[in-house]
């Protein structure tokens, strides 16, 4: 039986799992050498061991070593209000998230982001893509929280300027701040800078074009929400005369640096524009189920060669349930009607949750696969459970049976971040106690508007009626 003490805190580690998940599927009798935060060698156990005779392999019986999962779209400073959005109509950002995030001071933003990062690590995510906080004081707090929790984070800085249209000095300050943000984080080992526009009509054409150009030039991601639901499409049509994705194209902001969240409502023309642009998409199946009007046809995107990853949209930070939701949602909305019984196969969702998700996030040369030279971001998954006995098709089983309580350990940059679901170098219980007090204070003072009351009150009203 393996224990936390089986792993070195310093120096190289030679790990010999029963199964190793490579980009082409699971392989037995393999080994990886982890050194200086990276995979220094990957290959058959005998070969890797012979090349490093001074290292004693850590034998990981009945365990799978697999890449950490990638959440290509989330909101780290929304954790204080997670359950407030349940059962609510689609435009919850206006009534819940914006009011709540805007009351967060730097300390509260830090606590919210650290709680989200902790939940993500527990769910098997070693990388998260944050779409930007609406807390004016919170951006640096989010970066600090990611570092302290030990998660890899693509962090968006929001550059909306529609409210100050015509103020050239203010627009220049936003762009200068964006350039400075990218420069400050250029060499950060965990926090990767990104620029964001909340929704296309929240910025002027010029800001959209300039931000997209800046991310393209710097090799970073430009994030925005597009065509998420009917209200969003209509709002864009009323405000700018174009649908959100059309607006990006018209002002020159639809390029290969773009990471588009949702994209659930696409016309044939927009699908063509998306394919030709090189932009990537974050497919958020749980968000579609909880608050959407439609589901993105991720299988079609894959066939057209559009890069895409899986995203939580801050719904629940559980990577295995996300893969299951992606496959099930695709099957219910597209596969059933045309008799597609495999919906791409289990491997499709596993790939887009790992190395293809990393590429969509702009980190394909950094993480996402067990490959020599990439960052050692990985999970140790316990396969000695009834659900995986007998095992016939490990990739499919991970998608449909995998559960976060099977994750024995989470590593990011070669360092153990969690063991059996809890941090190894900081007090998560203390964080939870602090969050309980601060979250109650901030949610109570935020001008949140909910359509429905909490479940028990809602039940009582319905039964009374």
Short description:
The chain is an alpha/beta fold and 465 residues long. Helices cover 40% and strands 21% of the residues. The strands form two sheets. Strands 1, 2, 3, 4, 5, 14, 15, 16 and 17 form a nine-stranded mixed sheet that branches. It has an eight-stranded parallel sheet with strand order 6-7-8-9-10-11-12-13.
- At CATH level 3, the topology of the largest domain is TIM Barrel
Distance, first to last CA: 57 Å
Q: What structural category arises from helix and sheet content?
A: alpha/beta
Overall mean confidence score, pLDDT: 95
CATH class descriptor name of the largest domain? Alpha Beta
CATH evolutionary superfamily of the largest domain: Metal-dependent hydrolases
By DSSP (H or I, 4+ residues per run), the number of helices equals 17
Instruction: Output the radius of gyration.
Output: 22 Å
Largest sheet: 9 strands, mixed
Number of domains in the coordinates?
A: 2
* DSSP strand content: 15-25%
Annotated CATH architecture of the largest domain: Alpha-Beta Barrel
Shape: globular
Secondary-structure blueprint:
Elements: E1 13-22, E2 25-28, E3 30-35, E4 38-44, H1 45-51, E5 58-67, E6 69-74, H2 92-102, H3 106-122, E7 125-130, H4 139-149, E8 152-158, H5 168-184, E9 191-197, H6 205-218, E10 221-226, H7 230-240, H8 244-250, E11 258-262, H9 268-277, E12 280-283, H10 285-291, H11 298-304, E13 308-310, H12 319-338, H13 346-353, H14 355-360, E14 378-382, H15 394-400, E15 407-412, E16 415-419, E17 422-423, H16 428-445, H17 455-464
């Amino acid at each position: 039986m393996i224990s936390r003490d089986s792993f070195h805190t310093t120096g190289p580690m030679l790990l010999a799992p029963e199964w190793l998940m490579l980009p082409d599927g699971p392989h037995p009798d393999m080994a990886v050498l982890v050194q200086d935060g990276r995979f220094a060698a990957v290959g058959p156990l005998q070969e890797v061991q012979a090349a490093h005779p001074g290292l004693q392999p850590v034998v990981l019986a009945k365990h799978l070593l697999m890449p950490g999962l990638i959440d290509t779209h989330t909101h780290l400073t929304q954790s204080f209000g997670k359950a407030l959005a349940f059962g609510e109509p689609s435009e919850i950002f206006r009534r819940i998230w914006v009011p709540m995030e805007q009351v967060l001071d730097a300390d509260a933003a830090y606590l919210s982001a650290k709680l989200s990062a902790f939940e993500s690590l527990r769910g098997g995510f070693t990388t998260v893509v944050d779409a930007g906080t609406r807390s004016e004081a919170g951006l640096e707090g989010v970066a600090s929280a990611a570092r302290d929790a030990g998660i890899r984070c693509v962090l968006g800085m929001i550059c909306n300027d529609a409210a100050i249209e015509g103020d050239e000095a203010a627009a220049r300050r936003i762009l200068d701040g964006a350039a400075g943000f990218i420069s400050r984080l250029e060499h950060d080992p965990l926090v990767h800078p990104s620029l964001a526009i909340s929704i296309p009509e929240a910025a002027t054409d010029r800001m959209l074009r300039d931000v997209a150009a800046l991310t393209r030039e710097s090799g970073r991601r430009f994030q925005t929400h597009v065509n998420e639901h009917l209200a969003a499409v209509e709002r864009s049509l009323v405000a700018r005369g174009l649908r959100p994705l059309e607006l990006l194209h018209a002002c020159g902001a639809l390029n290969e640096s773009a990471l588009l969240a949702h994209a659930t409502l696409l016309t044939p023309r927009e699908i063509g524009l998306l394919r030709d642009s090189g932009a990537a998409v974050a497919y958020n199946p749980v968000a579609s189920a909880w608050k959407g009007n439609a589901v993105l046809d991720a299988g079609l995107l894959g066939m057209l060669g559009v890069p895409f990853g899986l995203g939580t949209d801050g719904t629940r930070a559980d990577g295995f349930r996300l893969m299951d939701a992606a496959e099930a949602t695709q099957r219910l909305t597209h596969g059933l009607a045309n008799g597609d019984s495999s919906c791409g196969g289990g491997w499709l969702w596993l790939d887009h949750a790992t190395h293809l998700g990393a590429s969509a996030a702009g980190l394909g040369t950094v993480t996402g696969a067990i490959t020599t030279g990439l960052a050692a971001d990985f999970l140790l998954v316990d396969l000695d459970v009834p659900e995986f006995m007998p095992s016939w098709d490990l990739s499919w089983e991970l998608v449909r049976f995998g559960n976060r309580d099977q994750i024995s350990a989470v590593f990011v940059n070669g360092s153990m971040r969690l063991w059996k679901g809890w941090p190894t170098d900081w007090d998560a219980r203390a964080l939870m106690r602090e969050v309980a007090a601060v979250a109650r204070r901030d949610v109570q003072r935020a001008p949140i508007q909910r359509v429905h009351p909490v479940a028990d009150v809602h039940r009582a009203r319905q039964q009374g009626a």
